[in-house]
Amino acid sequence: MSYLKLVHMEVHRFRWVIAALMGITAIFQFGGLIATLASELSRREYRLPQDIGNSSIPAPAPDLLTFEWAMFNTQLWFILPMLLSMAVLGLYVFIIWYRDWIGRSTFIYRLLMLPSARRNLYFAKLTAFLLFVFGMVSFQLALLPIEHLVFKLVVPADLRADSHIVDVIGINQALAELIPRKFEQFLYSYGLGTIVVLAIFTAILLERSYRGIGILYGLLYLGACALAVAFPIIFLGVEVPYTYFYPAEVYAIELAMCALVGGVSVWLGTRLLARKITV
Amino acid sequence: MRRYGISILIAVLAISGIGGYYAFGSRNHLPEYRLETVQGDPAEGEVIRLMGSQYGDMRSQPLSVTSSGSEYGGQKNRTYRSEMLGLGSWFYHDPDMRQLIDDHKSFMRGKGNERGFYRDDELVIYAESDTKNLGESDQSSVVRLSILRENTGKATKFERTVKEPPDDSQLSVHDVQRVGDEVHVLFSNYKGMGVSMEYVVCIFDIHTGEMLRESILGGWPMNEENKDVHLELVASDRVAAPNDTVFIVAKEYRIDRTGENAGVVGDKLSEKHYAYSYRTGEYAELPEPLWQTAGEAQRAHSVQQEYLYDAEYGPQRVVLSRVDLQTKERENAYATVTAGQLGADINIVQIHGGRVYLTTVDPIGIPGAAVLDLATGELLYKGRIVETGERKQTEQEMIENLHLLNLSIAARSEG
């Protein structure tokens, strides 16, 4: 079975969960947005002061409502489904491996017996997981214009003003972290996240290879990876002129350590899968 | 293909959503600006960086504008790279420090106090202080000197104790100068855990590092129950450049130390000016102050080679005065530039590298900048902010949203 077929298999197995997460996200966000707008429009209709019936709204409404204001006042409705999605995806880093061992049938034996390189299995699980993460981020990005449209449908034209999508994302604490303003920062954030996933995959495979003592190996490996990535920042300093290394050198060392941790994790993970885990 | 529809769909969603946002969705987010030359030599305006904020519906964005364009800052525009490269650090912005790092990368490692550097045609000297056993009975203060001979590349290091136990000093290096075969290091000294402050000049032999003597610079009123003394050291704006004279301005303010207004600084009670010459070691209070503060006028001053320059300014004029450091001869108001001559009100004035830099606001509210020759007050450059890029505001929106309140000089190291 080829790598792409394995990727599809992983996506297919998780499709209902990802669909459910998308559905919950959409329901929460549209519900929160419409409720907030309806409440504010109702307040205006009855000429109530800002603090009557709107105690949950943290920012007073401007004369002309903006999508940015609406986003600021519906933070919780946006953050909750995002946290849920993150928690589910965080758990799935482990489930994506353990469900093959622990289930009604030991599916991993069939996968390991496939007449193709075992590393395909490793990369397929990684690819599928990243597709889920980026798929959820993109789904959120796709929701925003639709939510903006809903905002325009609910709020009369003479009561609203335009907002730029970057301001809308920036005003929401969770979205601002999830979708950094600069693409370069996006690469750093999600690149670091990918390295974390690779390290956890390797720790799982250490546990699967050595069982009881493998848990200790896995934890030690994760600790070593964290130390390696944090070492340049903690011990060499960032933005501190008194340190021996120049900032560009610390930056290069940090990139090298990330690449090293990622590379060693892939090498060790695929090696364990190919040689240590037996059927 | 249909069989793989769900995988293709999620892959297309992932790539198109993120790619589309960063390629198209995030464009034209904020207006772009540039400092455009109105009059004079554009090269004079190239070193100017105007800093402030762009106001938005709910938040403002910090930005800086130069003749090349505008750049938005703030937490949301940062990346790990910009944070790690110390792009926000003044140390790496200082043109003299950048030049020293370019010329002597190895020597400059681990040296971060820009006020601890001295450079002439032969030597680079770096001094830093350290307190050993802080708070213990055997507390002492040491200075570490690093001396690099530029022609041979040979560096010499010394560590010398400058305050023996019992010591309650906290020394901090403020200036380093060379006089012949001596290194003069000017420290601020917070004695008794910051209760009082004096300046100390320690003089070391350049060959052996031995401390030869010290001079205490003080004599101003001490902090009292209801009085607070503020000290200002006036030296060259180029921290590593050779310079013979420094001035100390001691201002005494009324202050309440208890009650509701505890810590609130009140009226100024007195102002005294002192001068110290590294070459002669002479230190004295000046018989008449370097400048007279009048009304709401603000000041900028700087030691530039043989003169101490003073710019007294307000929205309507900047008045330049200077004192010859050798003869102590004063030239009060040797040049005056008015808002009328600039066609704009004056906001902030800085003296740097033989120039006077001004931020301005024209009568309709558009910010700009101007550059004067420090020696003559001649107007060398005048510029105003213009909007560039695809996203355009109306002039009124620009005036309401763009607030440039500060000025930095990016890279002028000559002069």
Chart the SSEs and their pairings.
The complex is a heterodimer of chains A (279) and B (415).
Chain A: H1 3-45, E1 65-66, H2 67-72, H3 75-101, H4 107-112, H5 119-154, E2 160-161, H6 165-171, H7 173-178, H8 183-236, H9 247-276
Parallel strand pairs in A: 1-2
Helix pairs in contact in A: 1-3, 1-5, 3-5, 8-9
Chain B: H1 5-25, E1 32-40, H2 42-45, E2 48-55, E3 60-65, E4 70-72, H3 80-84, H4 90-93, H5 95-103, E5 117-119, E6 123-132, E7 140-149, E8 155-163, E9 171-179, E10 182-191, E11 196-205, E12 211-217, E13 227-234, E14 245-255, E15 265-277, E16 283-285, E17 298-304, E18 307-313, E19 317-324, E20 330-338, H6 339-342, E21 345-352, E22 355-361, E23 367-373, E24 379-388, H7 395-401, E25 402-409
Antiparallel strand pairs in B: 1-24, 2-3, 2-25, 3-4, 5-6, 6-7, 7-8, 9-10, 10-11, 11-12, 13-14, 14-15, 15-16, 17-18, 18-19, 19-20, 21-22, 22-23, 23-24
Characteristic key phrases:
heterodimer, A: mainly alpha, 2 domains, two-stranded parallel sheet, 1% strand, B: 415 residues, five-stranded antiparallel β-sheet, four-stranded antiparallel β-sheet, globular
Overall description:
- The complex is a heterodimer of chains A (279) and B (415).
- Helix content of chain A is 77%, strand content 1%.
- Chain A is mainly α and 279 residues long.
- Chain A has two domains: 1-179, no CATH class; 182-279, no CATH class.
- In chain A, helix 1 packs antiparallel against helix 3 (75-101), helix 1 runs parallel beside helix 5 (119-154) and helix 8 crosses helix 9 (247-276).
- The longest helix of chain A has 54 residues, at 183-236.
- Chain A is globular.
- The mean pLDDT of chain A is 89.
- Chain B is mainly β and 415 residues long.
- In chain B, 13% of the residues lie in helices and 48% in strands.
- Chain B has helices at 5-25, 42-45, 80-84, 90-93, 95-103, 339-342, 395-401; strands at 32-40, 48-55, 60-65, 70-72, 117-119, 123-132, 140-149, 155-163, 171-179, 182-191, 196-205, 211-217, 227-234, 245-255, 265-277, 283-285, 298-304, 307-313, 317-324, 330-338, 345-352, 355-361, 367-373, 379-388, 402-409.
- In chain B, the strands form six sheets. Chain B has a five-stranded antiparallel sheet with strand order 1-24-23-22-21. Chain B has a four-stranded antiparallel sheet with strand order 4-3-2-25.
- In chain B, strand 11 (196-205) and strand 12 (211-217) form a beta hairpin.
- Chain B is globular and about 85 Å long.
- Chains A and B meet through helix 1, helix 2, helix 5, helix 6 and helix 8 of A and helix 1 and helix 3 of B.
- Chain A: Keywords: Membrane, Transmembrane, Transmembrane helix.
- Chain A: The chain crosses the membrane at residues 16-38, 76-99, 120-143, 187-206, 218-238, 250-274.
- Chain B: The chain crosses the membrane at residues 6-24.
- Chain B: Keywords: Membrane, Transmembrane, Transmembrane helix.
